[in-house]
Specification:
This protein is α/β, with parallel strands linked by helices and about 300 residues long. It is about 35% helix and about 25% strand. It has a domain of about 160 residues: Dipeptide-binding Protein, domain 3, CATH 3.10.105.10. About 40% of the residues are buried.
Length: about 300
Amino acid sequence: MKLKKYGIVAGMSLALVAAGCGTDEEDPGTETGADEESSEESTNYGEELDYTITGIEPGAGIMSAAEEAVEAYELEDWDISASSSAAMTQALGTAYENEEPVIVTGWTPHWKFAAYDLKYLEDPEGIFGEAEDIHTFAREGLEEEKPEAYTVLENFHWTEEDMGEIMMAINEGQNEAEAAAEWVENNQDKVSEWTEGVSSVEDEEIELIFVAWDSEIASTNMIGKVLEDIGYDVTMTPTEAPYMFQAVATGEADAMVAAWLPLTHAHLLDDYEDDMVDLGVNLEGARTGLVVPEYMDIDSIEDLK
């Protein structure tokens, strides 16, 4: 399998400022005659985080939604800092290890929810929408030119737990291709449903393109291994979301299994849906939003005011 090498190098620093707290004065007169003291402590996470939410690649749908949330909730002081999915998880991991506050753009499926105790901030305005589905798209003409691959891609459907196994293996240090191959070997019952009636091929090439998120690295490596096992010479190309859609729509790439709908990639689907074939949902129940560690005393995006 040919995999184009890629790397994401990013740095992220968070400025931390001590938070203030207020204490009520003692009340000398009580019914029991004993002194009572009460304290009320509040944390201004805005000041501690320099009013910065750590995001991912600019142009991603979740970034647009985060910026829309800043406006909808009137968070005039807050900024969404664009970086990359790797830099986002690095910033999250560093903050979590030190029990420091951090707010990131997040999504599930993602290994970070298994590795850390995290929560989504409530979104009363519904800016991030309800649960999403991940779709498979193919270029026009793929069904006629590579019918075996088309059938596998059309049949492909798995669960968040399936994807999570590969993501966790990669996060724990296993090579991406090896983690995907191990999952395929251990889940032949599911794979056989996707490949039922499919014949082997020889000397046929296929290119899969994907946005370089941990979830899509897992899914693309896995389905790439399935296609390789029936004889395809598979190339997998990581890129950013806008080019992923453009490449399939123009026929530069054959297919993708990484389109998040109806929200995250909706703006890109509007531009390219007439030039692609939607092969349907391959994973249900995906979600996006603003994510914080469970230890942070905050529950809603409204609380950032």
